Amino acid sequence: MNSAASANNAGNAAMKAGNVVEAETLFAEAARLAPGNPDFAINHAIALSWLDRHREAIAVLEGHRTAGERDPRYCSARANSARQLRDLAEAARWYDRSLALAPQSPRPLHGRARVALERGEADAARRFEAAIAANRADGEAWLGLVEALSASGETQRARELAERLVSQMPNWVAALRVLAQIRLGAGDADFASHVADAARQKPDDPAIPRAHVEVLEGHDRFEDALTVATDASETFPHEPYFRLMAGTLAGYLEDAEAAAAHFEAVDPDLPDGWLMEARFRLQTGEYDRAAALLDRLIEKRPNDIAAWSTRDLLWRLTDNERAQWLHGQDGMVRMVALPDAYAVLAQVRPTLHALHDASAFPLGQSLRGGTQTRGGLFERMEPELARLHEAILDALADYRSGLPEKDDSHPLLSRQDSDWTIAGSWSVRLCGGGDFHAAHLHPQGIISSALYCELPDDMGNSGAAERTGWIELGRPPPKMHLDLGPLHVLEPKVGHLALFPSTLYHGTLPFTEGRRMTVAFDVVQDTR
Known about the structure:
Helices cover 54% and strands 11% of the residues.
């Protein structure tokens, strides 16, 4: 390019054509040729953010901070990247600065409303209404308003608005899921019937039956989910997901012949199918076939948590000594004391209970009873949650210091020296009378957790014979039909964290009386 302006114009054209990689290169060239031009830098930062390179975007913008603080577009771009990096306080500050300069600008209005929702700010619904007033065609803002209304307890208004959105856009999967959550929280027995209605209205859209299968399967409605998956596999023969799920669900229902037929009808070179079929082959005792599928998958995706968890089950079923290497080394499963636990928990318990009182039974989670808080717990604004977060980080440092030596072939120990961050944080409150966590995985994490904030009086007493409410690690869910017990059964203790590799299935035993409240989170490798 002969000039910075020409490079910038070409970058704009590439962005409009959807060629973001090319646009980023062109905007970078424009910014290099004219380093004092903030408009070119803003364009470059926006392209970087489209490529999920948010730290680079902020670095580019920081070089123009003085001029940028007077430019609403600069402030909005900086806020967006801060939000994507989950620095919500910084995002709020830059969105507020952008809106002070241009109060009716739709993008920062919407972005600031999202931050308010994610941080649990009381005015989130009002902020979404302001974003809608600035751009009534912004469907995501309408859906955000539904979520904000639901979070603030205006469930009837939230439901009515969600029903209107689904009626107008029956193929909007995100809206279908939000309405399912609202209906589930209201106790509707057939909380996903509107998804079936949407599929009838949009019979050519495979995303709708896929969402229907996922919602039903997530709540143990295996027969219903199998019917949807089987029908969809005939309607959409080029969508392997439905055959794979039909095979999985048939396996859950112990129809091995039907399950095998579904798996054998799918292209054998699809990595997404290798894990699902491997789990089924464990059920039928075809261990060599399962091993070949898992070896192939882990070679392609060496950090696949779900694949490693299934390999653990295989190794234990076949008495392979590598099972001990994977989960049996000292220090990998620990109960760790929360620093200054008495003071920290005394402050945070009332806040957690207030959040639970406004929460409902969650869609597609492992709970069988009880409530789970919405959004990211440690992204909220309450100072007592920030103090809890800091204490947990200290406990994690203690856990890390007790791990075995680094092992590049191990799914956890290969990353013990990397940067860790908490991704996802929530609280669960279960009540006696049968509430429990079904066995499950957190496949996005490397370490999973449970901090015990409150327990019934008769739980957590050493020597309790029934182990009611205790956490089991390593027992697969009943739907897999595998004769394996837990590797560890941990006794809950108030003010302590159970910390363990995310490659371990985990669930809790039911209890009869009282209340059990925990805070949980996933630890991930920070690659941002």
